[in-house]
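Review form for a predicted model. The reviewer records the input and the model, then writes brief findings.
Reviewer: anonymous (R2)
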Amino acid sequence: MEFEERSAINILGQLIRIRTPQPYGDEKDAVLYLCDLFSTYPVECIVLEHGNNRASLIVTLPGKNRSHSIAIVGHLDTVGVDVGHQWQYGPFSAFHDGDRVYGRGAADMKGGVTSILLAALNLLEDNFRPVLDIQLCFTADEENGGIGAKSLCDGGYLDKATEIVVVKPTNEKIGLAEKGTLWLSVETRGCGAHAAMPDKGVNAIEQTALFAQNIAKWLHKKGKYPLLGHSTCTITSLHGGNYSNVVPEYTKASFDIRTSPCIDHTSILEKINTIAQDQMRENDLLKISYDVTQNRPALGMDENAPLICTFAEIYKKLKMSWKTTGIRYFTDASIFVPRLGVPYIIIGPGEEMFFHQPDEYVSIESILRIAKVLKEYLLKSTLQKS
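Model under review:
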């Protein structure tokens, strides 16, 4: 059975029209739609309720041998829609123009979810019975706290998985590495003074900036990682100061730290503490404190790993260009892989430079190509692992 463009447009359009933006998610609405798509096929559907109309879904194609599985993961939530940004096309209209479909989540991640669905439904229409279980996982809250992925792990639903394919926008490139993420909530207390005599005070804003710079310098010295480049530290919010003529004595800031797989987060946090202590020792009136609000490890795969080689063979068979890439943002892989200890790959339709922006779009042809890749993977992997 061939993949149909019309089916891709219809499924993607419905997913975009089902609104699942953060912070509320409402992913259960999408879960119910997916359950309906699979309702006439011999599959097992498990809905994981998270409360407040949030849910994740596991669809299992039962295998002849049920002791092991392979898993494909995609998420259902999207980032929010900034009312201050002008959209040419309605963010939930699923406007179709030639090869492109526009809308919030078109690329991240409803185009990828559509590829997963097309691959699975295509196999089911052909009465495919896998040797191993195939688990299709559609998660809630990937864009924030990862409640969906955590619930799958905590509930043991993927304990028999031997490898995971994480679908995210990679422009069809093969994601081998993913940057880790540390978010810090930083409070800095200095000493106020008249701005005409700044040497009499301790400027909390300046000290916060210095703290971030010292962390960034240390990270930079650790060198570049292939496909990912240097680790970074960025101030993403800063609140402090009340008057133009007063040295600010207090700030609250957010730091976004992105790390390469060569740096363990435990060692990073130890170094951050040392940097803070050193900075405070230089000024008795300075106090720096921080809390970790997000902690996702970096990941890395060898290009010669069996799972990667499997996809290389599929790309060759389908006459697709083979290019590897690094993922600079976090995905559900940062939850699944450390917890399950399995090999992974990150792949999907859509270009990362265009998602999370007004008039986000995805190419239908790209969705169809990735659907073919996933179908070949499911056929090839279940036979290889028999």
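Findings: The mean pLDDT is 95.
Further findings: The chain has nine helices and 18 strands.
Recommendation: see findings above.
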